[in-house]
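Support case: flavin-adenine dinucleotide complex. Customer-provided input:
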Amino acid sequence: MIREFLELHGEYHDDKYFRDLTTVKMGGHIAHFVMPENKQELKVIVNYLKTNRIPFKVLGNGSNLICGESEYEGVVISLKKLNAYEIRNDEVYAEAGVMVPALASVLAKEGYSCLEFAAGIPGCIGGLVYMNAGAYKGSMADVVIEVEVLKDGELIWLNNDEMHFSYRRSILQDHPRWVVVSARLKLKKKPKEQIEELMADRLRRRRDTQPLDKASAGSCFRNPDNDFAWKLIDGIGYRGFSLNGVCVSEKHSNFIVNENGGKAEDYMNIVYQIQDKVKEKYGVKLVMEVEKFNC
Ligand SMILES: Cc1cc2nc3c(=O)[nH]c(=O)nc-3n(C[C@H](O)[C@H](O)[C@H](O)COP(=O)(O)OP(=O)(O)OC[C@H]3O[C@@H](n4cnc5c(N)ncnc54)[C@H](O)[C@@H]3O)c2cc1C
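Agent response - structure generated as follows:
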């Protein structure tokens, strides 16, 4: 029944695994996977799932998710086909599935300053808005004009204030059934060379300090107030710690990498060990930035 409905309203698959759809390459089978072609299809699908009380999860590029090995019996909705964007004078309209590094490059080539901070963040517009992703003192909160959200069956626009952005947070995290459909971001004209140079410098810094050649979900923990998670992890001697193919990166100890077919259970085991030891030694509660799902 679910399958027949989804087949009518998007590209349907029943042979997808989270391990193939997440950057950390972990996670089990997905019972139903669907890619709507446009926002009308998305609306129909989400409304059907809500009415029938069927669990669902929206997926961007899977770069902030640790998914368990057991089958996810709900529906994963991938927004990869909602990937249109348009530059209009001093703003860009981008659908939720647009990959941010690609958009950052296009904007740079056109001489628009906006997403320099995000050039190395391997996610989609929807995921970056959801997380208020950021780096180098910039974040989505600085560039979002408004966000189109599918909320309670209707498409509405929430302005920047209404998104309640704060450090790696937005209102969406309090409403897991709302879906980001698109966003309008503000642009500033700047010399193209200046933008490209800044982006290249930041990408170089990432390559020098982060294990970009390994499967990961980025920084595992949020930085606590006035401190850095990596320093606390180093302080308890966990840099390089490894368990069943999952390792605390030697290059950046706030990255937990999947070196060899590691599982979410091992990732989470390391997370809990680090949290306990950091709490014991420093009295600090490290909070995950990465989201665990279905585990
Ligand atoms: C190498 C590496 C470097 C990274 N560097 C950074 C960094 O510098 N700064 C930073 O902030 N993050 C960083 N990250 C983490 C990650 O890229 C960001 O959190 C990003 O915002 C996740 O986007 P995504 O599209 O992959 O989201 P996903 O991982 O697919 O999803 C993340 C969450 O957002 C929800 N979501 C996704 N799309 C939508 C939508 N359209 N509507 C509603 N909810 C949605 C999902 O349900 C899920 O709860 C890094 C990750 C990696 C692997």
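The chain has three domains: 2-78, 85-194, 212-293.

Case will auto-close in a few days if no follow-up is received.
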